[in-house]
Amino acid sequence: MGALPRGADGEREAFRSPPRAPGVACPFVSPPAPSTPPDAPPPAEGPDVTFAAASRPGVVRRVNQDAGFAGLVDGRPLLAVADGIGGHDAGEVASRTAVATVRERLARSREPAPVALARAVAEADRAVRRAQGDAPGRAGMGTTLSAVWIDGDVAVLAHVGDTRAFLLRGGRLERLTDDHSLVAERVRQGLLSEGEAAGHRLRNVITNALGADAALRIDVGHVPLEAGDRLVVTSDGVTTLLDEATLADLAVGPPDAAVAAILDAADARGSADNVTAALAAVERVRGAATRYARPAVNEGAVAEPGGASPRAAVVSLVASGDPGWIQPLQRRYPGRGPWARLVAAVRTRPARGAPGGREAPGRPSDRPAGGPDRAAWGWWGAAAGLLVLLIAFALRG
Prior knowledge:
By secondary structure, the chain is an alpha+beta fold. The protein folds into 2 domains: about 280 residues, Phosphatase 2c, domain 1 (4-Layer Sandwich); about 60 residues, no CATH class. It is built from 10 helices and 12 strands. Strands 2, 3, 4, 5, 6, 9 and 12 form a 7-stranded antiparallel sheet that branches. A hairpin with a 2-residue loop joins strand 5 and strand 6. Helix 1 runs antiparallel to helix 2 and helix 9 packs antiparallel against helix 10. The N terminus is likely disordered.
């Protein structure tokens, strides 16, 4: 995918959540997300977190095509930054649509957080596509998006484009996301140095964005949290001007002050693009097991030049029209409990002749075409029988 036009001039817009008052966001980002369903399970008890976010048009542009958010969604802190593509009344619509859709989808999801976040990003992609036809000039608009959702003692992340997410731990800043851009790919291939990439004439050419390609690539991962950790998400208007050492020095103190310092520093360097940052400070982590299993992360691995830290255990998915696109993530983060095990058993039902006695998800079994899937019906029948017994006991009581 080639570069798309990024915005014209317009009025300045900004927001910031007040210190130690999470969940407050300016209305320009998105409307309030739906309330948590009354039957939704409570989120895992997790860390004490404070957070803030702010967005500015920069010193050159008047229209702000970025959107950001820092607040609680389903009782869990969410950071999200999107950088719109497509010009006035297009890029800003795309970025705000993406952030609002992610919030709304997460608020009503009951799936494990990594699966829910990936589905929310895929839904945001569809929402941006629908909005492309709402007004003249929106055809081809798109947006990048990086989101971090804190769930219990883990931060779950999803990423598209060249916005970035970072972990600041012990004074050391680690990048958790890989840029989906032409020059970043060349750096990872060893064809460019990071210094050459920073000044390259094609540095704004992104290769992946919401609303831009039929097959969206979503990077999903997680990071176990420790007391004192800080999570930072920024648009490329910030990272183009501030190196990681500078960003680490600025991302300290109260979250709202840290976010303001980051944007002030970018503005002081000329900020030819919009600048947005969101930050969460983890003050304490209480013991809390997530409602899903998660793979171990490699704490000692070292990032390759131009690449993200392997600490985040990121995997890439292609959100295509095939409903099975999410299954690798469902297997990677299986839910706990009998209902989750039942769903997993149906999803990976036995098939004659399949290696290990299981059929690969998304592939047909060897039953006759149109014939019954006895394994799946057996599991659902057992679940229905158990439900009837529970209802009967409840009525007798």
